[in-house]
Amino acid sequence: MELSGSEIIIQFLKDEGVKYLFGYPGGAVLHIYDALQNQDDVIHILVRHEQGATHAADGYARATGKPGVCLVTSGPGATNAVTGIATAYMDSIPLIVITGQVPSHAIGSDAFQEVDAVGITRPCVKHNFLVKDINKLAETMKKAFYVATTGRPGPVVIDIPKDITAPHIKIPYVYPKQISMRSYNPNLKGHPKQIKRAVELLLSAKRPIIYSGGGVIIDEASDQLRQFVRKLGYPITQTLMGLGAFPGTDPQFIGMLGMHGTYESNMAMHECDVLIAIGARFDDRITGVTSKFCPHAQVIHIDIDPASISKTIKADIPIVGGVKQVLTEMIKILGNARQSPDKAALDIWWKKIKSWQDQKSYAYEQTDGVIQPQAVIEELYKVTKGNAYITSDVGQHQMYAAQFYHFDKPRRWINSGGLGTMGFGLPAAMGVKLAFPKKDVACVTGEGSIQMCIQELSTCLQYNLPIKIINLNNRYLGMVRQWQEFFYEKRYSHVYMDSLPDFVKLAEAYGHVGIKVEDPKDLHDAMKEAFALKDRTVFLDIITDQEANVYPMISAGKAHNEMELSPLQQEIQASLRAKGETV
Amino acid sequence: MRHIVSLLVENEAGALSRIAGLFSARGYNIESLTVATTEDRTLSRMTIITNGSERIIEQITKQLNKLVDVVKLQDFTEGNFIEREMMFVKVKAQGDGPRAEVKRLSDIFRARIIDVTDTTFCIELTGSGEKLDAYIKAMHENNVIEVVRSGSMGILRGEKSLTI
Fold this sequence. Notes:
By secondary structure, chain A is an alpha/beta fold. The interface of A and B includes residues 118 and 147 of A.
């Protein structure tokens, strides 16, 4: 088969099983767009901004586990994609970004729409390529997919000069089914001796805790995690990125940990004697101040990336390997072990955890006339029966969603954890909806975040993507305002979103349905109505309590046992103390 | 502590900047870095001299290993290895006395004079970093016109080797 560079790109994507290509045309990719016209296997989704393309592809990848693919032009096309690339990089999401480049002979001449895309993206990709020879195009694309999807996944950029895609230069094409790279061999298997040692340590624990992260979801190891946790009977806490890997409604799950995690999970972290980290990387939002992190614990750390191990927290038993394989081995060893968990010690430990749980750290006061943001997520959870795919932007609403939507399945909770990218939620929801058109997909956002990629409402109309936007509108950049309240004596510097648009009219202008909710009494019906409108994109603009805070909170420089508690929890704590019922 | 890390990397455009970029992005120190192709033209050999705590060095080697262009890497510091650096020095050499003095010093250091004018000598010297420092010191600062140093390169002693 003789194909041009452009045709090779499209044919390769087809052969690789790529269904959707999120992109935006421009000069350097014109040849490719011309070739796109002649086929209907790879469906192109025209976004309204290249950032939207990367987030949409990212959302698709997070929901399906398959790589998300984007096509953008040179110069501004590439720079606009950088935020999305960095977002995927921080959360280890397989993303392929094809950037057009000025013709080979013009590279380095400051040509129109020229940037050094490979240079600009280098620090935020797993790897990147500049294709200099059409004969290496297919092989390079295969390498890109291979690198992006194996080991610790991540984004890969392929920069393709315009002359490589010229229609009149045709070469023979064969789909490279397999590729090997001498410099890239991810280690997937944990060391058997280390695994055995880890199980022995786990079984000797008196106050154990299992701390799992996004790695479990990436490695499709939810079943193994569930078996492992069940077998041990230990409490499990999950990171923001790990939510859903273990069922959120299971009694062994004691809530998310970290900066806005539950009281019980953070206290359990602080007091545990054995900690097993599974596919988690001890991010600073998880650890609090590292010098006071888990002061009594011996640490087992399973991670596919050796560089994650002992980076911030020293691992006593490091295990480099894929989570699924290592957990499978551990379950096998546990099945044959003569020793079993220390039941008596575990009973005492669970009792202590229950006493922390009794303090109800997520509790908030319902108010008449004013909608509490937490109540919105609880309503969303009820109306969707916990089955929706939830994307989010970044800020308070993100934390409320993580706290109050109990994810029972992996890949249902889609948010920018590492980079914290506002503007992620809406385009990510588009990617999810394309992957699962029959499922409910909601984007939990705020009036700040949503305006960062609001133009994608237009894409939603063009491709009929009936997602539900749950806008927690508190007229503040809520999380920044909360920090200014706590740490800057309420000096609210530039956090009031003055001159907000009328979101209902805005949604209508884009051809969608807009519903404004101000009274708590109307919340349930509005939510029901939004999800009942199966084939419409609905923008629920929900006016919430302006100064609600996210609790508990571990401030900078503080340890897990030094959380700021909500006023309500402090009351509960005091009354439990008075009754002598607290530890 | 000072570490000497030796790498085999794909001889591809951008490989060097990936490595240099890693050091600057993560705030690691680079004392010197040398790079050139090997007998296999598809591979470059690189020697990096860096310093940091054990923890930092562990991160540096792990992060370097993570780069897709890095084929193989070894921290030589703990092992048995040879380290050498090369230097060119251009010095003032005018009048019989000073010229004889430079020549005498160069003989002591086993340096070679590789270029001569009426007023200058250019000297080539190979050795450890300390030896090169000592030579410059002996040469007296105000006589030195120009110094060009290669940065260190290293190789393992004995039968051990860093090859693929």
